[in-house]
Design brief:
It is a single chain. The chain contains nine helices and no strands. With 214 residues, the protein is an all-alpha fold. It has a single domain, classed as Lysozyme (Orthogonal Bundle), CATH 1.10.530. The longest helix has 18 residues. The N terminus is likely disordered.
């Protein structure tokens, strides 16, 4: 079994080869004191249990989503064979990432690095689920039930809200926010691995309409 340091050194190569092994290298997010206003905002962000049903302002937006869904489903097929399972997962990733103001491709890249798309992954430090959320977050901003972090939408919502929180704390610096998510702030291995994996999930819509120039 390789060490965490060796794993992170191999991460860029692993991204290129599409291999991440079976380990869950969950981010050891550090429990920090939260201001009451921040805790309230984060709690509110995870409290809404509405199902991730996409809503679209027009037909063009709906078709753009369906093209994304089809492309991502094809890329995920080797990991998740069942179409309905892929659809539910991708629909939830799309919903929760956009709800948090994140790029769905970035979130998919983070999930690949953190858990290799394993719903019940548990890291050596206790991080759980797809986005490897540390249990203390359930106490800080949830109902305290850390077992719910294995629920797909709950895990994805917590992960996206936490990453958004770190991104805001780092004033939009994605590199530093990713390091904070992993508990390795300032080190390049993890952010580089996530950003590299994110390129695999980047979607360039060939049918996207360029905005008219003034």
């Amino acid at each position: 079994m390789i060490s965490r340091r060796q794993y992170l050194q191999l991460a860029p190569l692993a991204v290129g080869l599409g291999w991440w092994g079976n380990q869950a290298w969950g981010g050891a997010q550090i429990e920090e004191p939260l201001a009451d206003s921040v805790r309230t905002a984060l709690s509110s962000a995870v409290a809404n249990s509405a199902p991730p049903v996409p809503e679209f302002p027009d037909t063009a937006a709906r078709l753009a989503y369906l093209r994304w869904l089809g492309a991502m489903s094809g890329r995920l097929r080797k990991r998740t064979a069942e179409w309905l399972e892929r659809k539910e997962f991708l629909q939830t990733v799309w919903y929760e990432s956009r709800r948090a103001g994140l790029d769905p491709g970035l979130v998919l890249g983070l999930i690949q690095v953190e858990s290799n798309f394993r719903k019940f992954a548990v890291s050596s430090v206790g991080a759980r689920g797809y986005m490897q959320v540390m249990p203390f977050w359930a106490r800080l901003i949830g109902d305290g039930d850390s077992s719910r972090l294995f629920h797909m939408q709950t895990n994805l919502r917590f992960g996206c809200v936490i990453l958004r929180h770190y991104l805001d704390r780092e004033r939009g610096d994605l590199f530093m926010a990713l390091g904070r998510y992993n508990g390795s702030r300032g080190r390049p291995e993890y952010p580089n691995a996530v950003l590299g994996a994110g390129k695999i999930w980047k979607f360039n819509d060939p049918h996207a309409v360029e905005p008219a120039r003034p």
